[in-house]
Design goal:
Layout lengths: L7 H7 L3 E5 L5 E4 L1 H7 L22 H17 L3 E7 L2 E2 L7 E2 L2 E10 L5 E10 L1 H17 L11 E6 L8 E10 L3 E12 H19 L5 H12 L9 E8 L4 E7 L5 E3 L5 E3 L4 E2 L14 E4 L5 E5 L11 H14 L5 H12 L9 E7 L1
Parallel strand pairs: 12-15
Antiparallel strand pairs: 1-2, 1-7, 3-6, 4-5, 6-7, 8-18, 9-10, 10-11, 11-12, 12-16, 13-14, 13-17, 17-18
Helix pairs in contact: 4-5, 5-6, 7-8
């Protein structure tokens, strides 16, 4: 059976991506319709033009042109793909002359080789990522609005961190909170809503606010999680959320804690040992068929100890037993015991999450007791 004839010129023009062909001498040899649309230029003003002589649309575009030219020359010299990532290129509104719109692009230059192994062309692809950048800005604003700003809790130094997964849009369902309670007491909490993105972040915001209010009820952390569990049953997407909360009382040097399916808080004692507070573990929120009471436990501490609450992104790794992650955390805390909370938080994140390797979001709270 004969192979069907393919009209590659028609395919080139029909590509949904913006693509142009450039000679090794940096002359536009062809451009598809989407490329011309993005550039806002007719074909005769692009094809046959020598790129270094191409005038930028505005002064701000000149640095981008120089980076694109450098990328093309690098691809010619090395014979390898070259990428110019996330570049701003403001474009004039064709319907409103003089009105410019902020745009962001990724530019990829790929060598094309002939049958003899010589480079014949460079394929240049423009990817408009403006909407992604705008969505990211909205997401960051939302995340910042829903997570409390770092602040001292009474007289006790504390540090908080939030790190998104490498592939996330910088928002997800992880959260932290610190709440002043009557007397010399605070409530510390971390939680993790299932999923990523704006929807999970919206659920997170509702649950965090509800837990903050519930923590002000004097009965303790177990009762606070019971109330939160009832509320979670009314919120779509809140099922199976995990939460750990601890009430710290400096008057009697005690920590009362409760967990809803969450990794156990860590207590770095003054002798350098680390205790994981795991004696009050219950299922995640709204995971039981019927609502029921939750447990809490109490442990004592000495002045100078460190309380650490975190989400599972800090300790879990694919294909690895969670005990190994807990051991890494304990080792890191012990080695940096003398550090202040801010320095300790940075050290723990650096040692447990290599840059660009976070596969899940991570929230972290460290309080010097």
């Amino acid at each position: 059976m004969a192979e069907p004839a393919v009209d590659y010129a028609a395919v080139f023009q029909a590509l949904p991506g913006a693509v142009a062909l450039v000679t090794p001498q940096l002359i536009f040899a062809d451009a598809n319709a989407e490329f011309l649309r993005l550039r806002g230029l007719p074909r005769e003003q692009v094809v046959g033009r020598f790129l270094p002589e191409e005038p930028p649309d505005n002064d701000a575009a000149e640095p981008l042109l120089l980076r694109v030219l450098a990328s093309l020359r690098r691809a010619v010299e090395t014979g390898e793909r070259s990428v110019v990532a996330l570049q701003r290129y403001d474009m004039e509104d064709h319907e409103q002359p003089g009105v410019w719109h902020e745009r962001y692009f990724n530019v990829t230059n790929v060598p094309v080789f002939g049958p003899d192994g010589r480079m014949t062309l460079l394929l240049q692809r423009l990817e408009d990522v403006t909407e992604l950048i705008r969505a990211r800005e909205v997401a960051l604003t939302l995340q910042e609005a829903m997570l409390p700003a770092p602040r001292p809790v009474g007289r006790h130094p504390a540090a908080v961190r939030y790190r998104p997964a490498a592939e996330a849009l910088n928002v997800a369902g992880d959260w932290y909170d610190l709440v002043d309670l009557p007397g010399d007491r605070i409530a510390v909490a971390v939680g993790d809503v299932v999923g990523h993105g704006l929807y999970a972040a919206g659920v997170m915001g509702q649950l965090r606010s509800a837990l903050t209010a519930a923590s002000l009820v004097p009965e303790g952390p177990a009762r606070a999680l019971e109330v939160l569990g009832l509320y979670a049953r009314t919120v779509d997407g809140a099922e199976n959320t995990t939460v750990a909360t601890a009430f710290v009382d400096w008057e009697n040097h005690s920590i009362t804690y409760s967990s809803a399916g969450h990794p156990p808080p860590a207590l770095l004692r003054t002798d350098g040992t680390v205790e994981f507070l795991d004696r009050a573990a219950d299922p995640p929120l709204a995971a039981r068929p019927e609502h029921g009471p939750r447990t809490q436990a109490v442990t004592a501490f000495r002045e100078g100890a460190v309380l650490v609450l975190y989400t599972d992104g800090l300790i879990e790794r694919r294909g690895e037993d969670i005990d190994k992650g807990l051991a890494r955390l304990a080792d890191s805390l012990a080695r940096h015991q003398a550090d202040d909370p801010e320095t300790l938080a940075d050290a723990v994140l650096t040692e447990l999450i290599p840059p660009g390797d976070a596969t899940d979001d991570t929230a972290l709270v460290i309080v010097r007791l």
